Amino acid sequence: MVKITKATFKSFIRRNADKLYIMNLSDFDPMTDCVQQIDSAGFRKAKLTEHSNNHTLGIAGVWLVGQSRDYFTAYEKDGFRGIEVYNSCGNFVVAVTDQTETGERK
User: Fold this and answer.
1) Which residue of 35, 39, 56, 92 is 20 to 30 Å from 69, comparing CA positions?
2) pLDDT tens-digit profile of 59-73?
3) Residue whose C-alpha is closest to residue 47's, from 22, 79, 15, 81
4) pTM (two decimals)
């Protein structure tokens, strides 16, 4: 079993930037001051932003805390494979798929 680190995650994003999908599972809610599970509609095409920093890595929906407080695990389910991230600000999966936009396998 290979340990996934922030460097592994960043490399995965660089290699697959044009074909990434994201699924947010929980987000920090400042109104209740806690992380809450959200109703996820599943994976959506990742939206790359113009402003990249160490917290977002240029992807809307990504938020990394840093200082070794992000936890990474491999994700593979329903034709998607990628990396699941959990931290004090939420939980999300960044993945690629082997299916086309119409749902056909490549």
Assistant:
1) 39
2) 888 889 988 889 999
3) 22
4) 0.79
